[in-house]
Amino acid sequence: MTDPTPSISILFRLTDGTSFSCGEIVSVAFSKNRYQPCTEMSAVVLCSRRSADIARVHLYIGSKLVHDGVFEYARREYKDGRALMHFRSRGFTVMLAQNEPVPGMNYDMDLAKLGRINTRIPNVTYQSGTAEVNYIYVKERSTIWDAVGAYSMKAYGTQPFIYGTNTVRVTKPSAQPVAIPADRVVTCGDSTDRRSMLSTVYFQDMDETYPYTMTSQAAEQLGIIRQRYYPFDRQWLVDTDKGMRLKLATSARRCDADFVSYIGYSGEDLFTPFSADCGAFAISGEVHDLSVSAEDGRVVTTLTAYSDTF
Q: 152 by DSSP, 3-state: which?
């Protein structure tokens, strides 16, 4: 384990190309999730610079850069003689979900090639050396993140995630396990979220019938009946089962989760193996959701592992 009281620092990059380190930090909240297309952070800081002059934010926990993103929203106010700024930022990869790729068929795609043929998003990188798939079909009004998700399912049966600050990955990285001792644990437990869980999906064929179907036995055993019919999609023309599996898996996110909050931060990222001694019981798994909060010099990290049901 690392220092239970790591330092938190924020570097602002200005619109004129210069940068400066934030002085006093009142509070910070940072998060990332295996299903989200970006890292996120919010903070309250003392800042004498006009908020419109800030373009980019770096967040460091200890010496590790955990967030690099656009300075998206801020509100600065003067209170008790101090300039207090509240701001929010998301990593540059958020724009993958905000840009549309050119519709049509793209043949012989690996992840890096898929990134190159679409709108270039600054400061975003892609995992290299991934498998090649025959094609990725891009629908009108879809996003680059949708195309990356289709590639990930076709190539590996996975869903994409953000590693580090702005790197898109589709396979798990190697990482050293983290063990959290009992004296650092603040709280732990489990959660269930079945609010979006689907029971059955139907895919349309070219003749406008719905001959393809897949059912989640887990949903039906719970008494959950939610059916969806999806229009014909060339993306899954020869991979219908993968397409239906993606719909069901996406709907079943967060159905079963364990979490632990502890004092400090040990450098975890998504898919870092971890274990925690919670006294009465132990928790272990991979990091699927990571959040770090800091206030009054106290840093608390929450790790969540999903056992998503399908």
A: helix
